[in-house]
């Protein structure tokens, strides 16, 4: 019973948020390529500054080109905006968990990457010309302060994300940890008593 109470003290129900970009509309061109939804911030950065569309004036973060209601940006490695990336952070600067998302690509043989400190970079590939969903699976990035998305390879058709499932990261409170330690000690003591009784009977 004590162990169950301790575990309940450690468990807090964080409010999960699904970022859908349904109200994105025309958004976020240079010099402020930033979009905020439900306390989470998407920021475009790192674009090249050469070429007709490579200048900061050409940076685009906005509603999906082919699929409305997705967050879309453009950048083709080896071409326009080859270093263009998008970061996801929490508006209050806190830690968060990224559980799942959908990635849409518009281009041929596009390789897309997701990275966060403390985790290996995840890559997803789409080989069909046109808009293709290439990721719909648990990512489970826990306790991160920033997630960065980048297009590693592709023809420059653009990348979009949708249905981003995030929640504030929950850290066990010191009181909850103390209760868990006490519960573990009580359980250990009870086990020793049962072993002693068993030894005395035999």
Nutshell version of this structure?
This protein has 202 residues and is α+β, with helices and mostly antiparallel strands. Helix content is 18%, strand content 39%.
Calculate Rg over CA atoms.
23 Å
Distance between the termini: 29 Å
Q: What is the average per-residue confidence, as pLDDT, rounded to a whole number?
A: 74
The coarse silhouette is: elongated
Provide the structure class.
alpha+beta
User: Percentage of helical residues?
Assistant: 10-25%
CATH class: Mainly Beta
- Low-confidence segments: 1-13
Query: Approximately what portion of the residues adopt beta-strand conformation?
Result: 35-45%
CATH architecture: Sandwich
What sequence of helices (H) and strands (E) makes up the elements?
A: HEEEEEEEEEEEEH
Detailed description of the structure:
This protein has 202 residues and is an alpha+beta fold. The protein contains two helices and twelve strands; from the N terminus they run αββββββββββββα. It has helices at 2-10, 174-201, and strands spanning 17-19, 34-37, 40-45, 61-63, 71-73, 85-90, 96-106, 110-115, 122-126, 131-144, 147-153, 159-168. The strands form two sheets. Strands 1, 4, 5, 7, 10 and 12 form a six-stranded antiparallel β-sheet that branches. The longest helix has 28 residues, at 174-201. The protein starts with a helix and ends with a helix.
């Amino acid at each position: 019973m004590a162990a169950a109470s301790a575990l309940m003290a450690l468990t807090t129900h964080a409010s999960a948020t699904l970022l859908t970009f349904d109200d994105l509309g025309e958004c976020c061109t240079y010099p402020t390529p930033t979009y905020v939804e439900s306390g989470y911030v998407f920021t475009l950065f790192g674009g090249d500054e050469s070429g007709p569309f490579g200048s900061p004036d050409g940076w685009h973060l906005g509603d999906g080109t082919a699929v409305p209601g997705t967050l879309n940006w453009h950048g083709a490695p080896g071409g326009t905006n080859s270093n263009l990336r998008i970061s996801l952070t929490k508006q209050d600067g806190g830690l968060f968990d990224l559980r799942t998302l959908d990635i849409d690509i518009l281009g041929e043989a596009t390789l897309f990457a997701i990275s966060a400190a403390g985790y290996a970079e995840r890559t997803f590939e789409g080989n069909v010309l046109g808009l293709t969903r290439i990721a719909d699976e648990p990512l489970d990035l826990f306790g991160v302060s920033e997630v960065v998305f980048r297009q590693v390879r592709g023809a420059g058709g653009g990348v979009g994300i949708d249905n981003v499932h995030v929640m504030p990261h929950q850290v066990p409170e010191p009181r909850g940890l103390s209760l868990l330690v006490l519960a573990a000690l009580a359980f250990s003591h009870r086990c020793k008593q049962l072993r002693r009784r068993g030894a005395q009977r035999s």
